[in-house]
Each structure stands twice: as structure tokens, then as C-alpha cells.
Automatic annotation (TrEMBL):
Domain Thiamine pyrophosphate enzyme TPP-binding: 62-199
Domain Pyruvate ferredoxin oxidoreductase beta subunit C-terminal: from-to ranges: 203-266
Transmembrane regions listed in the UniProt entry: none
Gene3D superfamilies for this protein: 3.40.50.970
Molecular-function GO terms, alphabetical: iron-sulfur cluster binding; metal ion binding; oxidoreductase activity, acting on the aldehyde or oxo group of donors, iron-sulfur protein as acceptor; thiamine pyrophosphate binding
UniProt keyword annotation of Magnesium present: yes
Pfam families listed in its UniProt record: PFO_beta_C (PF12367), TPP_enzyme_C (PF02775)
NCBIfam families given in the database record: PorB_KorB
Lineage: Bacteria, Candidatus Chisholmiibacteriota
Keyword vocabulary terms for this entry: Iron, Iron-sulfur, Magnesium, Metal-binding, Oxidoreductase, Thiamine pyrophosphate
Name of the protein this chain belongs to: 2-oxoacid ferredoxin oxidoreductase
InterPro entries listed in its UniProt record: 2-oxoacid:Fd_oxidoreductase, OFOB, PFO_beta_C, THDP-binding, TPP_enzyme_TPP-bd
Cofactor(s) of this protein: thiamine diphosphate; [4Fe-4S] cluster; Mg(2+)
Length: 288
């Protein structure tokens, strides 16, 4: 008998989310599940690596093969999983502080190598779990718990950072539009190479500036303008827009993923290769 298609309830754990009522994380949680249903992936057919923070707490609320990484270390764990078994779709769920702060070096390295992973970022422009400190994406001048006089640094621009780092799928979503967000996640998972879905996610408790209404007055969809995401220069221009906030795919490029250029993985995944015939004696003799 053919396998039954997945249902959204398959990804539901026995733990209900502890996020604040109205948190944008709920929209991302629902969008991710909807995208996996449309991708026809059961919980045992993919892996999710979770970061630290409110976004990382989804590890408790999501039923699938997964790994809860250290702060900023979701991407290197995900690349290791992908290199071990490159037949598995690998998804990272992390926050803006996690990805663009503690993990920025890993983000750039993975994008530069075009590792075949999907990075879903909950971007609420604060460190929400630790009660609202300034984050890498916080707008310059914003007063937060850790910057009562206003944030001194300029905020990281995730779209421009990803494009300049070599990412081959760069997109932005808004958690208040679940259908659009789910569609972008689906396309990102289907993409062969490094894919970013940066999701603007209101923090209803600690960020009273970037609210649902604030975003709805400013966001617009690139698709509605007939935008084609194949020109890197035009993608940069869209990434630098400030008065209005573009949503959708900024840039997409097709080229070999990292694992496709690793000689040892040409025939089959590492997890399927036997090490029983490897003689370590010469190496041990040389180095010990």
C-alpha cells in the first residue's frame, strides 16, 4: 500500500508552546508544519536543528528527528548532519541573535560553502528569552533593557549579509502571513544549496515598536511587482530598501551544493559507507 500523506498533527509533540500569547513564533511554528505537509515529509524523513532562545524552545513543541544545539552553533551542527547523510533535508530553526550574533561566523561560512541546509530565522530584533536586550538586528538608536540610551551599533541587514556571503536562496517572510511564509519555507527546503528564510516576527512583550500593525503598514511582496530574483545587483538594492519592507525571494541561484563537490561523498552518503576495511595502522605508526 502507498504511504499515507503526512498530517500536520504528526509534527505536534505532547507539549503545548510556552510562548507569550500573540507571539510571532506561533505563526512560524504553524507555517513550518504546513510547509512540511506540502513537501510530503513525515517526521522521520528530515532533521531539524534548534538554536537557543524563544525560537529554540520549539524543540519541545515539535515532533521530528532533531537536535538542540548550543547558542550560535545550530548551523555547524546542521552542516555536520548534512555531510553525514546528505539525502536528508536539514532545517535550522534559530533566532536573530543566535544566527547573526553568536553564530554570524558560522552563518557566513555555511553560505560561502553553499551547504545544502535551510536556515529559518525568527527575527524579532531583540533577545526575547532573556527579556528584551538589544540584538544584532536592533535598529540603531532603539532603547532596550541593555541600551537605555539607545543602541549604538547599526542593525545587521540579514538579506545583504546573506547575498554578499554567497547564499544561493535568500528570502524574507512575515509571521503574520502564514500562507506566504509556508510557501517560502517550502521553496527553501526544495532548493539545492544554502537557503535563508528570515522571518520578521513580532515580540509582543519586549518589542513594542515592530508590532504586527507596524509591519502590515510597511511590508509588500516582491512577486506583486513582477520581481525576478536572479540579478545579484538588484537583490542588493532590494535588501537596502528602508521605507518599505520587501517580502519574498530576493535572490536565487542554481549551483552545486557543498556535499556534491566532496570526493568521498560521490558514490553514496557517509552514513552508508563501511569503515571496516580502513587500515589505521600506518597513520597510528606515523603520528604516535
Amino acid at each position: 500500500m502507498p504511504e499515507e500523506p503526512p498530517k500536520q498533527t504528526e509534527y505536534q509533540s505532547t507539549v503545548f508552546p510556552t510562548w507569550c500569547p500573540g507571539c510571532g513564533d506561533f505563526g512560524i511554528w504553524g507555517s513550518l508544519k504546513n510547509s512540511l505537509v506540502s513537501l510530503n515529509l513525515h517526521p522521520w524523513q528530515f532533521v531539524v536543528v534548534f538554536g537557543i532562545g524563544c525560537s529554540g524552545n520549539m524543540a519541545d513543541f515539535f515532533h521530528a528527528h532533531g537536535f538542540h544545539a548550543l547558542h550560535g552553533r545550530g548551523i555547524p551542527n546542521a552542516t555536520a548532519i548534512k555531510l553525514t547523510n546528505h539525502t536528508l533535508p536539514v532545517i535550522i530553526v534559530a533566532g536573530d541573535g543566535d544566527t547573526y550574533g553568536e553564530g554570524m561566523g558560522h552563518f557566513i561560512a555555511a553560505a560561502r560553502g553553499n551547504h545544502d541546509i535551510t536556515v529559518i530565522v525568527h527575527n524579532n530584533q531583540v533577545y526575547g528569552l532573556t527579556t528584551g536586550q538589544s540584538a544584532p538586528t536592533t535598529t540603531k538608536g532603539t532603547k532596550t533593557k541593555s541600551t537605555p540610551g539607545g543602541t549604538i551599533e547599526i542593525g545587521v541587514n540579514p538579506m545583504a549579509l546573506a547575498i554578499s556571503s554567497g547564499a544561493t536562496f535568500v528570502s524574507r517572510a512575515f509571521s503574520g502571513d502564514m500562507a506566504h511564509t509556508a510557501g517560502l519555507i517550502k521553496q527553501a527546503v526544495e532548493h539545492k544549496g544554502f537557503a535563508l528564510v528570515d522571518i520578521l516576527q513580532p515580540c509582543v512583550t519586549f518589542n513594542r515598536i515592530n508590532t504586527y500593525d507596524w509591519y502590515r503598514q510597511r511590508v509588500y511582496k516582491l512577486d506583486d511587482e513582477g520581481y525576478t530574483p536572479t540579478d545579484r545587483t538588484k537583490a542588493f538594492a532590494k535588501a537596502l530598501e528602508e521605507e518599505k519592507i520587501p517580502l519574498g525571494i530576493f535572490y536565487r541561484e542554481e549551483k552545486p551544493a557543498y556535499h556534491e563537490e566532496v570526493t568521498a561523498l560521490k558514490e553514496k552518503p557517509l552514513v552508508e559507507q563501511s569503515i571496516s576495511s580502513i587500515d589505521l595502522a600506518p597513520a597510528l605508526e606515523e603520528f604516535l
